[in-house]
Amino acid sequence: MKDPAGGGSDPPAVVPSRIPASVVYKLSLILDRLAANGRIDHCSSAYADARGDTVSASLRALGLDYLKETSGDAQALSPSVERWGRHLEFAVHHLLEAERKLCVAVFERRPEAAPVCFAEIAARAGILDFLNFGRALAGARKDPIKLLRLLDVFDCLNKLRLDFNRLFGGKACVEIQSRTRELVKTVVDGAVEIFEELPVQVELQRNLPPPVDGGVPRIVSFAAKYCNQLLDRPYRSVLTQVITIHRSWRKEVFNDKMLVEAVLSIIKTLEINFDTWSKSYGDPTQSSLLMMNIHWHFFKHLKGTKLGELLGDPWLREHEQYKDYYSTMFLRESWGTLAPLLSREGMIMFSKGRATARDLVKQRLKSFNASFDEMFQKQSKWVISDRDLQQKTCHLVVQAVVPVYRSFMQNYGPLVEQDVSASRYVKYSADDLDKKLNTLFLAKPGRPMRAGSFQIKNSDDKITSAMTGLYRSASTLK
């Protein structure tokens, strides 16, 4: 049987069989007779026990052990939050709604007893366990992932708001009402607190070291994707509603335009970090590589998204232009310096100057080899995160080096290739250089993923990484 709550991974839930009207009528008569003998409380309690056990059994078939989870990590709780929403909706719409109607029918002759009996059934079925799970999530460590999960919880509760009011609106359900209001307030407060801290937390990343390999910092890729989530369905409308409610408690206003401005400020703050990170390298070439990586990542991954649409085409094109600029700077400051080492200046090709020419060729090949090896060894540890950009950059590097080297060797290689010490100077063929250069900037197999650094300071002054649970590593930009 397919899970009525949705999702094929859950065990099948069993909806209690509908009790025939004739049985309901007989139960009503029995209850009325017991009530006449002063045993209404005993009868109501027995009925609540029986029906509560039935509803509880139906819910247990879904596998609700996760409701007891106590993890302080919102990311670890994420799969359970999705199940929680489906299961709570199923419990309300398919189980408790039916039980309330059944209570009204059974206690038709004693309507004052129906609300109390239903409240006991709901409690016995475990409705408070669902609310306790929400509280456990609200108490998890603060990080951006937690904000999304809190919005999921609020969205679910908001969709069930009218159902909760109808089912649990009476005096008999005062505890459920109180716990629900408390959960909603805790969720709203927690979500707004995290959201309002995001720009500050992004700014704090400015003083952290950038990746040692020059690749895109995890904070950049994470923040771009995260902000896009906040501005897209379904989170945009939910977050706007949450902040609007929170502001209304303070007699303030909030709207969708203000949300967009707040999210865009996160991206603008992140952009300011770029220059600081690039200046932290001792090598200007690596600074150019980092900036090339970051600007291309922004252009490619935000183009065509809701966030990219709001930032505008001129903003996106500016990042594409910056990528081109830093690509040019990177080539000029690194591989572009090799061609002058193979200068033809001073070469003497007539026979009387052959020894002099040979010495010059040896010197220039020696200088070229040393510079090439040093540069290759250093840059073989660097990464260009985007595969297309990596291939394009390698092609440009090859074009800056290989044709010049091939021409030099065709013209002057014979001067040293027959020399007994030729291997000391002719280390590479042009094809060798081509192959080596095309292996640059690739992420190495088994290389650990860099940690995210979107961090939120908790009340105990400890720093929590936004990527905790995703990458399980230290909260640094490395």
Automatic annotation (TrEMBL):
One of its GO terms (biological process) is protein transport. Residues 83-438 form the Exocyst complex subunit Exo70 C-terminal domain. InterPro entries: Cullin_repeat-like_dom_sf, Exo70, Exo70_C. It comes from the Eukaryota. GO terms for cellular component: exocyst. Pfam families: Exo70_C. Keywords: Exocytosis, Protein transport, Transport. The keyword Transport applies. GO terms for molecular function: phosphatidylinositol-4,5-bisphosphate binding. Belongs to the EXO70 family. Component of the exocyst complex. This is Exocyst subunit Exo70 family protein. It comes from Sorghum bicolor. The lineage of its organism: Eukaryota, Viridiplantae, Streptophyta, Embryophyta, Tracheophyta.
